[in-house]
Amino acid sequence: MQKPTFWGIPVAPWWRYPTDSRRLPVTTGEAAMLHTTRRTNTAKVRLPALTVQTLGAFRCSHGSTEITQTQWRSQRACELFLLLLTSDGYSVSREYASDQLWPDHLGDAAANNLRVVLHRMRSALEPSGQLQTVVHATHHTISLTLPSGSTVDSDEFRHAIAAARRSPDGRTALPNLRRACDVYNGYYLANLPLAEWAIPLRAKYAADYAAASTRLGRILLTLNAHTELVERMWRALDIDPSIEEAHEILMQSYAATGNHDLVKRAAPTTPALLAHTLRDAHTMVQRRIYQQVLSS
User: Fold this and answer.
1) Which of 126, 151, 202, 282 has its CA 20 to 30 A from that of 213?
2) pTM, full prediction
3) Beta strand 91-93 pairing with 141-144
């Protein structure tokens, strides 16, 4: 059989050519190049998850990289971000944002300030080279779409508190109470100047933590889980020394285990705290335990 030629040059038969370009042979170097390109393109499309800590010192990180104060460029940019996180659906109207950030400004002045702050917030949350959009703005609203896998500690805290309240039984509430107490690391935005809109949130979160931690302590007391109880109650008092019921629970736990010296340590010693608890029903329990220890 005569081999096919093209202008006298031998060529391979037509049936030996692949009809699908995807079947063309690829060298090892080309394969590595394609893999690198594919991996690079994926990295450009996806943003790292955001980790936002608001209970205690405020921190916000893209993956393992913290967004610095220099990247925020202004306190207002950070405040706008936090305001969005506390709103339903992470969305607010422009008018509401302007009123909260600049209550003393009117009309165009507040609107111009908002445009500048919005740009700074977007620059901090959307690093250059990333194609995913976190900040969405229309003529009327501003909203956030956090990258997949992002976490906001105040959201986790609120959800755990709500789930625990729906569980009247102590054992079923235990996992959510533990989760809420683990997430809470201190007063809301403890390291930032507190805006007026954030003051009620700080008070609410602190009250919710006090209630959750003492309920958890009571449950652990009934379960005789004294080691975990002592650790959690001292942590609660480190965060907020005014949680009087935590003192009482510690005293009862130490008394139940025969640690009389530690009962004295757990008793509130500050005159202001003692005066405050005189109006409390729990004080009678504290005083009775304390008197028993002193008499022994």
Assistant:
1) 151
2) 0.76
3) antiparallel
